[in-house]
């Protein structure tokens, strides 16, 4: 029925032979089953369909006279342009043209973006998400130095660099699929209430980045003895590849409930050993013993340091980055004004809780005690302790005059996998 109606919209349908009496030859109109076609004065073809049969009363049709009179009146009035199945459809051409224009503009903008790395061997990650490289053994991530991460000398602080190191370490564990419900703990470690704690860290800074710089951080882990792990970092300028910072740290496991050190369980070892990279430390271990300071040997003492709630991490102890800030609280102001920190070694001996009250002690080396604001290098010894004298962190710092960096001095390189994998 639909096909018949559509066809009759374009071609007049002749009446069957049985209806010859209702057709007038040469009259220009024909009737078929309630469908009337006629030629308007303009020569256009008009088709009208009556979908309802005439009503009947007692078997006799009614209203036929009115229909005939109406039809006669319509014969006199000129009809508008015909409305057919085709010309009643909406015009989609304008909408299709608009969509095409939008796609072409978006494609042009996309092609103008440069997503290709500047160097094939360096990951350029503008979003700072990071990824695992070197067969899954090295994690790489970019960081943009923000305005709130720089200090009075317009360069990033040592705490900023330490935060970048910590962030990449955690992201490495997470991206590798080893993150349990603890802070850097694997699933097997979480089952046993084990966490990682740092025991020693060494950092060498060749140059501090400034606001707007993008730094590229690579980090990897290696075995350290039977029950330890070493994590190394290499920080470079993402644009030039220049080495900025090298850092190496030693970690052991501690029971989160008993707060005692623990051996590495075999199930945990099975989780982490596939990610160990057989390489030398990026920073040669400093075997020089760090001396213990006291009130007699310290040149500067800062008392009354207390942790804030925001200084605690998810393991409910003070974040190790915070210790550096407390150590520098007792550094002589002339050193902070005229020198910059070039190297730091830290030995973590005891954790610090929320209710601790701390003291920071600093002793300046004999060579630098009379040259705090001079052009030479200065070395300091540090101790962070509880008020009762219990040691928390021992440290040593080396300082160089500002703007006297020896660029390229360290020549840090990415580690080569010596495991043969």
UniProtKB/TrEMBL annotation:
SUPFAM superfamilies noted in UniProt: Thioesterase/thiol ester dehydrase-isomerase
Keywords for the protein's UniProt record, in alphabetical order: Chloroplast, Fatty acid biosynthesis, Fatty acid metabolism, Hydrolase, Lipid biosynthesis, Lipid metabolism, Plastid, Transit peptide
Domain Acyl-ACP thioesterase N-terminal hotdog, residue spans: 136-271
Residue ranges occupied by any Acyl-ACP thioesterase-like C-terminal domain in the UniProt entry: 298-400
EC number in record: 3.1.2.-
Keyword Lipid metabolism included in the entry's annotation: yes
Predominant location category: plastid
Keyword hit for Thylakoid: no
Polar residues bias (residue ranges): 1-10
Places the protein is found: Plastid, Chloroplast
Annotated stretches, region: Disordered: 1-47
GO MF, one example: fatty acyl-[ACP] hydrolase activity
CDD domains per UniProt: 4HBT
Pfam family name, one: Acyl-ACP_TE_C
Chain ranges of the Acyl-ACP-thioesterase N-terminal domain: 1-125
EC primary class: hydrolase
Biased composition (Low complexity): 18-45
GO CC annotation, single: chloroplast
Protein family: Belongs to the acyl-ACP thioesterase family.
Purpose of the protein: Plays an essential role in chain termination during de novo fatty acid synthesis.
PANTHER family: OLEOYL-ACYL CARRIER PROTEIN THIOESTERASE 1, CHLOROPLASTIC, PALMITOYL-ACYL CARRIER PROTEIN THIOESTERASE, CHLOROPLASTIC
Protein name, as recorded: Acyl-[acyl-carrier-protein] hydrolase
UniProt organism field: Populus deltoides
Taxon lineage: Eukaryota, Viridiplantae, Streptophyta, Embryophyta, Tracheophyta
């Amino acid at each position: 029925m639909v096909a018949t109606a559509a066809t009759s919209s374009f071609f007049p349908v002749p009446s069957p032979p049985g209806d010859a009496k209702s057709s007038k030859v040469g009259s220009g109109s024909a009737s078929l089953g309630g469908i009337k076609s006629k030629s308007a004065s303009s020569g256009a073809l008009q088709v009208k369909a009556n979908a309802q049969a005439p009503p009947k009363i007692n078997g006799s049709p009614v209203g036929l006279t009115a229909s005939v009179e109406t039809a006669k009146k319509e014969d006199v009035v000129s009809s508008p342009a015909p409305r057919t199945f085709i010309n009643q459809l909406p015009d989609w051409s304008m909408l299709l043209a608009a969509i095409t224009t939008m796609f072409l503009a978006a494609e042009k903008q996309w092609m103008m973006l440069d997503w290709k790395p500047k160097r094939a061997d360096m990951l350029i990650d503008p979003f700072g998400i990071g990824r695992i490289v070197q067969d899954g053994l090295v994690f790489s991530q970019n960081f943009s130095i923000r305005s709130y991460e720089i200090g009075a000398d317009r360069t990033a602080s040592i705490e900023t660099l330490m935060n970048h190191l910590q962030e990449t370490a955690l992201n490495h564990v997470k991206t590798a699929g080893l993150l349990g419900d603890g802070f850097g703990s694997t699933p097997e470690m979480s089952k046993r209430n084990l966490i990682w704690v740092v025991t020693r860290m060494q950092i060498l800074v060749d140059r501090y980045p400034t606001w707007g710089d993008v730094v590229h951080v690579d980090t990897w882990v290696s075995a350290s003895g039977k029950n330890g792990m070493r994590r190394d970092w290499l920080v470079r300028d993402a644009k030039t590849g220049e080495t900025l910072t090298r850092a190496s740290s030693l970690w052991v496991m501690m029971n989160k409930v008993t707060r005692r050190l623990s051996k590495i369980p075999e199930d945990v070892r099975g989780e982490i050993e596939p990610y160990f990279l057989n390489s030398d430390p990026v920073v040669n271990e400093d075997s020089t013993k760090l001396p213990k300071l006291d009130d007699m040997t310290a040149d500067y003492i800062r008392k009354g340091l207390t942790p804030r709630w925001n200084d605690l991490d998810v393991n409910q102890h003070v974040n190790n980055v915070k210790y550096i800030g407390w150590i520098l609280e007792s550094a002589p102001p002339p050193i902070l004004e005229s020198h910059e920190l070039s190297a730091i070694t830290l030995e973590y001996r005891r954790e610090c809780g929320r209710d601790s009250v701390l003291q920071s002690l600093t002793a300046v080396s004999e060579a630098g005690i009379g040259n705090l604001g001079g052009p030479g290098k200065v070395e300091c010894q540090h101790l962070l302790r509880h008020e009762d004298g219990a040691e928390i962190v021992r440290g040593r710092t080396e300082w160089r005059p500002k703007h006297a960096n020896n660029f390229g001095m360290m020549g840090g390189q990415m580690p080569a996998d010596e495991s043969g994998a």
